[in-house]
Amino acid sequence: MRLEARHVGKRYGKEAWLFRQANAVFRTGETVGLLGPSGCGKSSFCRLLSGYDACSEGEVLLDGAPLPTFGYRPVQLIFQHPERAVNPRWKAGAIISEGWQPDEALLEQLEIRREWLKRWPSELSGGELQRLCIARALAPQTRFFIADEMTTMLDAITQARIWRTVLDLAQRRGMGMLVVSHDRHLIDRICTRVIDFHELGRDRHDWGD
Ligand SMILES: Nc1ncnc2c1ncn2[C@@H]1O[C@H](COP(=O)(O)OP(=O)(O)OP(=O)(O)O)[C@@H](O)[C@H]1O
């Protein structure tokens, strides 16, 4: 499968364009790293790619067709801030099984404890909540998995364990991965290709506001 950003641009309200004419193609089976300085628009780009936000111009295509607007999302995004990705009025057990029922083995690999499932999001740490979000996003229908600073809030050992689990699943299922991180060491270790956000094929001279 192929996920494509075609002449994509984003601006918030009447603010200046954050980026324009961004082009990129991602394929299932590859793990791509996305690098760029803080504030350049990487998270915004990921939200467009996963269908969580609308492009101000251009389009995102999955095998040549627009992303589905209902049902389970084939392009899953793990946000940098998990507390913004969950419904605070749902208990963890309902959150995790929103799109599918993760199996015991996955919960164990992500070190998710059963008792967390009875708690409200506000009763969980950022790292615990992030692991629930990761499990929620790993349904068999996920074709692309976008990790936006996914493990920043976790300790090194938990980070390594989670990446091993996610990468192993990605390989077995032939998922496509897009990894956004300021950790160059992580990107170099796990990615098959690295792209610089500023090199997504846009011409800064033609922006205009
Ligand atoms: N919903 C929004 N409304 C208005 N401005 C926004 C919104 N989301 C992001 N921005 C602005 O867009 C710019 C880019 O933010 P974004 O989070 O996409 O960058 P980033 O490259 O992911 O940064 P970082 O590496 O620090 O996470 C920032 O100036 C941010 O304040």
Total strands: 9
Corresponding CATH superfamily = P-loop containing nucleotide triphosphate hydrolases
Q: Order of strands across the biggest sheet?
A: 6-7-8-3-9
The oligomeric status of these chains comes to: single chain
Structural class, by secondary structure, is: alpha/beta
Q: What profile does the largest beta sheet have? A: 5 strands, parallel
Average residue-wise pLDDT: 92
As a percent range, the share of strand residues is: 15-25%
Spell out the helices and strands N to C.
EEEHEEEHHHEHEHE
Q: Report helical residue fraction.
A: 25-40%
Query: Gap between N and C termini, in Å?
Result: 35 Å
- The Rg value, from CA coordinates, equals 17 Å
Highest CATH level, the class: Alpha Beta
Shape estimate: globular
CATH third-level topology: Rossmann fold
